[in-house]
Amino acid sequence: MLLEGKRVLVTGASAGIGRAVAIGCARHGADVAINYGRDTAGAESAVAEIKALGRKGVAVQGDVADPETARSFIAVAVDALGGVDVLVSNAGICPFHAFLDMPVETFERTMRVNLHGAYFMVQAAANQMVRQGQGGAIIAMSSISALVGGEYQTHYTPTKAGLLSLMQSTAIALGKHGIRCNALLPGTILTEINKDDLADQTKRTYMESRIPLGRLGQPEDMVGPTVFLASDLAQYVTGAALLVDGGAFVNLQ
Question: InterPro entries from the entry (predicted)?
Answer without folding.
Answer: NAD(P)-bd_dom_sf, SDR_fam
